[in-house]
Design a protein that fits this description.
Layout lengths: L4 H40 L1 H4 L31 H37 L1 H15 L3 H12 L3 H28 L2 H8 L4 H37 L11 H7 L1 H5 L4 H24 L9
Membrane topology: Multi-pass membrane protein
Family: Belongs to the binding-protein-dependent transport system permease family.
Keywords: Cell membrane, Membrane, Transmembrane, Transmembrane helix, Transport
């Protein structure tokens, strides 16, 4: 019995935690999770399910209407729109993921360092965050791209730097509250180092705020990266990307062929809305969102 009871208690707690998460999400949140899952699945399986090469088209098949050969039609270069949307999910989601991961890592480190050491270190971190706040996200990204060249990697890294202060500002307040609790003081009295206390106690207790903030920032990152690609500073042709597809479809839109811009724009809107709903249901903007 002594070996079975702990497992039963752990299993029961996991079930209660899972049910609590579903209750917080609600029907709309669950639907958003399903949408995100489908988008990720489409991005991962794009090489297997895309009917055509997204970069190769045919002049004789320009502006084909949706049909058996091309389910969503073709663009101005005769490329299959469904294939480009599927492959575009790969760059759009991957770029946003890089932004969110780098921003979360940088913001978390700065928040924990400022919280633990306090004093001059906290003031120095605060001045650094204020300096980063002075640069609008897109302006900083454009500056970096102008110096290091166009591309998804450069744009993602630049946006990650711009997102760090938004993440660090909120996480610092949460970590500061945890820092003052009795369990942290008890760990210090036991002689544990600041690194151990931070890694073993502070970090796990602010992890929910990190995750919910990342979910919200994911949507913002998708919008900013799409804007950079729209301006020609992010993903470069002929690579498929939703923001780039919106840009490339401008002339087609004026000629009466709105499919490319509308479909790519709809994908961006749906993805951003889904991530925003998940983030807000799990904790709201106070958990580290950019806004």
């Amino acid at each position: 019995m002594t070996g079975v009871e702990p497992l039963a208690v752990t299993s029961s707690r996991q079930r209660r935690s899972g049910r609590g998460t579903v209750r917080r999400l609600g029907p709309l949140g669950v639907a958003a999770v399903v949408i995100v899952g489908l988008l990720v699945l489409a991005a991962l399986l794009a090489p297997l399910i895309a009917p055509y090469d997204p970069a190769i088209g045919s002049v004789v098949e320009r502006y084909q209407a949706p049909g058996a050969a091309h389910v969503l039609g073709t663009d101005q270069s005769g490329r299959d729109l469904l294939s480009r949307l599927l492959y575009g999910a790969r760059t759009s989601l991957t770029g946003a993921a890089v932004v969110v991961l780098l921003a979360a890592a940088g913001g978390t480190v700065l928040a924990l360092v400022a919280t633990w050491f306090g004093g001059r270190v906290d003031a120095l971190v605060g001045r650094l965050l204020d300096l980063l706040f002075a640069f609008p996200n897109l302006l900083l990204a454009i500056l970096v791209v102008a110096v290091f060249g166009t591309g998804l990697t450069q744009a993602a890294v630049a946006l990650a730097v711009a997102y760090v202060p938004y993440t660090a500002r909120v996480l610092r307040s949460v970590a500061l509250r945890e820092r003052r609790l009795a369990y942290v003081q008890a760990a210090e009295l036991q002689g544990l180092s600041g690194f151990v206390v931070t890694g073993r106690h502070l970090l796990p207790n602010i992890a929910p705020q990190i995750l919910t903030g990342a979910a919200i920032n994911f949507g913002y990152a998708m919008i900013d990266l799409a804007a950079l690609s729209f301006l020609g500073l992010g993903v470069q042709a002929p690579t498929a990307d939703w923001g780039l597809m919106v840009s490339q479809g401008q002339d087609s839109l004026l000629q009466g062929y709105p499919g490319q811009s509308l479909l790519a724009g709809a994908c961006i809107v749906v993805a951003v809305a889904a991530f925003s709903v998940i983030g807000e249901r799990l904790g709201g903007r106070r958990a580290g969102g950019r806004a």
